[in-house]
Amino acid sequence: PIKLLMSWLLSPVCELSHIFVLCGPPDLREIVFVIQSQSNTFHVRQAERRREDLLKQARGFTEPVVLLLHSLSENEGDWSILPLLSHSFGKNSSWIVFLEEETNVKLIALIKVLAKVDKNKEWFLGKPLFDEESTIIHHYAFAENPSIFKYPDFAASWALSIPLVVRLAKKVKEEPLKSDFTIDLKHEVALYIWDNGKGPHLTAVPELCTVPEDSPQASHCATTVSKKPPLCGDPVNKEDIFVAVKTCKKFHSERVPVIKKTWEKDALFLEYYSDHADPSIPTINLGVPNTERGHCGKTFAILQRFLSSAVPDTKWLLIVDDDTLISIPRLQVLLSCYDSSEPVSLGERYGYGLSQGGYSYITGGGGMVFSRKAVVRLLKSGCKCYSNDAPDDMVLGMCLNALGLPVTHSPLFHQARPEDYARDFLAHQVPISFHKHWNIDPIAVFNKWLKDDFTASQDELKSAKTEL
């Protein structure tokens, strides 16, 4: 009996709870892993590596189901998670565990975490984030005490028990998302699950972590992440990036000087586009009047100019607002992971009407990056603005959707200010951009968050090339 008890205690999934021993060989068919993948070539490769790592760790046990989100259906809205809950996840499954492509998983440690929880009840598990102050990206939710509401850090992984999934799937069919916009998915999913107190709160799981894998703090963790930016080879040359800054006369003296004092020097090819030609900056008047709301007319004029002989022939176009703060060196590193011969549209992804067959788009304030191929496809399609003041980012999203071209998300681009994001969320990032000068010192924000260039050493780059 003693030997039998010891063998139980040393088995891969074994927990001593009061007088009961809960153990035995793990049935990994109870867990469905969903990797929150994207259809871009680089992201597919990253997701497939994550799947291979999970399956490698599972050798000798029953093989888990590992699904890639982008391949589950043709529905563009699946990245918003809720529409895919009606997907059949298998008769034996007890948990759906969602992972980002960058989430490192210690499989046995994660199984032990889930073994502690009653799978027959509704559970929403994750690493909690919270807002220190109410923020526009969360529609100023819980304005009186924003820290009271917790939502999951997707990078740490998060899990739903099947009883909760079953109820949510029914709820999604009967009651779609109330908001047309999908802005910060992790917060919106948590709100939908909570359901004004009728559903479960997020339960904090200390073993779901966002510390680096080699950190001393990682010893107790079932998941970890890497803070380093992805290394896919040499950073893209400055000569390959053309930067277009949208401005207007009233902001020439207020916003443009911030760019000149911060990141302008890192861009080799940069032009300012305005409703007024000011040779002291200089700005270029594209013949499009300034509009108070959307800037579709100006943006499409920029796209046409990018393909003309008026500017250098470059592989990438970056379009930013005059109150966007951005790190060009970090963008150079990130773009090394993408193939400029593909129609790439990259930035912070938002969604409109995703539960009713809508579309995704790159939100403009964080910076919109397009490969030359993407710009050529957009303009050849006949895509155009329905008015000069239409929202340019959303019109571009509609056009990309009509063409069947993917919108690629990077969490390193930010539509808002650093204080609009949870501190723990930013702690494991090397951000590329922030947006808005409202109620901040933009130069101080740039110096704190974006100034260092994080260019990798040659040894690191050689290693990355060998691995890739």
UniProtKB/TrEMBL annotation:
InterPro entries: Fringe-like_glycosylTrfase (IPR003378). It comes from the Eukaryota. GO terms for cellular component: endomembrane system; membrane. It is found in: Endomembrane system; Membrane. Residues 235-441 form the Fringe-like glycosyltransferase domain. It is a single-pass membrane protein; Single-pass type II membrane protein. One of its GO terms (molecular function) is glycosyltransferase activity. Residues 1-16 form the signal peptide. Keywords: Glycosyltransferase, Membrane, Signal, Signal-anchor, Transferase, Transmembrane, Transmembrane helix. Pfam families: Fringe. Gene3D superfamilies: 3.90.550.50. Belongs to the glycosyltransferase 31 family. PANTHER family: FRINGE-RELATED. This is Beta 3-glucosyltransferase a. It comes from Oreochromis niloticus.
